[in-house]
User: Fold this.
Amino acid sequence: MPANAQNKATRHSGRATAPPTRANAKPENSTHADVYALLSRLEKVKENGPGRWLACCPAHQDRSPSLAVRETPDGTILVKCFAGCPTPDVLAAVGLELKDLFPQRGRDDYHASKRPGERWVPRDVLSAIAQEALITLIAAEATHRGDRLERVDLDRLVTAAGRLRSAAREVGCHV
Ligand SMILES: [Zn+2]
Assistant:
C-alpha cells in the first residue's frame, strides 16, 4: 500500500484501541486475523464497542465513516460498507485481500506435533461444516431464484468460507 496512506491512517486513527505499529507485527501463529493491519490503513477509525469499529471506507468518497469493522469471537474480521462497496474492493483499496480477514491458526502446530494418523475430526467440526454448507446452499438457491443477496448475506458467506477453512486446518489441510 502507498506510504502516504499509512501516514494518513496513523494521523487519523484517533481512538483505535492499539497503536498502528501493531499492523506490522503479525504473529506467525496468531489465532485471530490481524484486525489492526486493517484499522491502521483506514481513516477516522473509532471504536464503537468491544471488537467493533467505524471508519471511512477507502473504496469510495467517504466523508463520514460508513465502514463497519467487526472482529468475531472466532477471530474472523467482518467488513461492511454501508454505502454498498463490495468487501473485496474495500480491502483492495488498502492493499489487503479476503484471506486477511481469516485466522491463520495452528499451521505449524499440526505439522510439528501430529502425524496424519494422530489427527482427529471432532463432531463439532463436522457439525459446523454441515451448518456452513447449508448456509451456502440457501444463498445459492436465493441467487438461483433471482433474489438479490444483501451485504449482510455476503458477509455471512465470507464467515462461512472462513469457518470451512479453519475446519480444514484442524485436520492439517492448507486451503
Ligand atoms: Zn464504501
Q: What stands out?
A: Residues 107-170 form one domain.
